[in-house]
Write a structure and sequence with these properties.
globular; nine-stranded mixed sheet; 13 strands
């Protein structure tokens, strides 16, 4: 989608939360000595991840993140006008997680609340939706929630997904331009290639093929995530660099002008591929997947918040955030540090 530069909005703050249980690679190695965890660890860059409990869902973790955000900003709870909840692991087919969350938090009935069913591109898409609400004055303050518990969607014998993904949630407050916050959103660019949707899919569980059906013989686990790792990698390295080149070009910027790159934490091997293909100085490619894994749409906001709070950015820095994955779908943001 080749839109004009976005109406400036501000990412005022982000809070995040993880399930308490941590699953390390050593624990996985003890459970599955035939999985060659060391080799997979080298490719993924993941050494441990948080896993939701049996009765813990993405909604529960998201609520913890939102309450942490509210605790830092007294009065914000009364200011929220809209909730956009990005997840692919909702509590129910219906109603949406966003509506349940509004009720749990006791927010005003005037709050708009809805889910979007996106994965690793969900943060840029969610910011784009928030920008629309703010631009049209449907809202002054938007709560963007990104949460998934992929551990509940992974077959226990799927070693590639088990090693890679972790459960997490983030809650991001967006508003119109302000004097304080984390980042100004200066541009947004989105894209889709649904023809390759089968590269990352749960075949069963929707209206097309109900859960428990035999499904198509090509799928190993029709009720669980089926990820074509090589296909996803090929998609990412062929589409994302060109996409980002266009994002930079329309702002008259080059790779050397970007102070930090907040890529979706897909895997170590994909991040290293971007670094090489785009000739980005390695120290400018931010990473945090070693201890939390690929946290789906929450990965970018968690990474941005961590870097901001630990002194990894300075005022005026230009940062690019890019998400890509299920759909196939991708999106990027050009940010400036406040």
């Amino acid at each position: 989608m080749k839109s004009q530069p976005s109406f400036p909005v501000v990412i005022r703050d982000t809070a995040f939360a993880f399930p308490e249980t941590i699953l390390t690679n050593n624990q996985l190695d003890e459970r599955h000595p035939d999985w060659t965890i060391g080799r997979l660890q080298t490719k993924t860059g993941v050494y441990s991840r948080h896993i939701a409990g049996e009765n813990e869902t993405a909604l529960d973790v998201a609520e913890a993140a939102v309450r942490a955000l509210f605790s830092r900003h007294p009065g914000l709870q009364e200011k929220i006008d809209a909730i956009v909840f990005c997840t692919e692991s909702g509590d129910h087919i219906l109603p949406p997680n966003a509506c349940i969350l509004q009720g749990r938090l006791g927010l005003s009935s005037h709050v708009a609340a809805f889910d979007i069913n996106l994965a690793c591109s969900g943060f840029p898409y969610g910011v784009a939706i928030a920008r629309g609400f703010l631009y049209t004055r449907l809202a002054n303050n938007v709560l963007l929630v990104n949460a998934d518990t992929y551990s509940k969607l992974i077959h226990p014998e799927d070693r590639a997904c088990t090693v890679l993904f972790g459960d997490a949630a983030s809650a991001t407050w967006l508003s119109r331009e302000a004097d304080n916050g984390l980042f100004t959103v200066e541009d947004i660019l989105l894209g889709t290639d649904g023809a390759q949707g089968n590269l990352f899919i749960i075949p069963n569980g929707g209206c097309r093929t109900p859960k428990g059906s035999n499904g198509d013989a090509e799928f190993r686990y029709p009720d669980h995530i089926n990820m074509d790792g090589l296909g996803i990698r090929g998609f990412a390295v062929s589409v994302v660099p060109e996409h980002l080149e266009f994002l930079l070009k329309r702002a008259d910027l080059a790779v050397r002008d970007i102070d930090g790159w907040a890529f979706h934490q897909a895997s170590g091997i994909i991040l290293d591929s971007f670094t090489r293909i785009m000739r980005i100085p390695s120290e400018r490619v931010w990473k945090n997947l070693d201890t939390i894994g690929n946290t789906v749409s929450a990965s970018i906001p968690i990474l941005l918040k961590q870097r901001h709070d630990t002194g990894g950015t300075t005022v005026g820095d230009v940062v690019v955030a890019a998400g890509f994955g299920v759909g196939l779908s991708w999106g990027s943001l050009r940010l400036r540090t406040l």
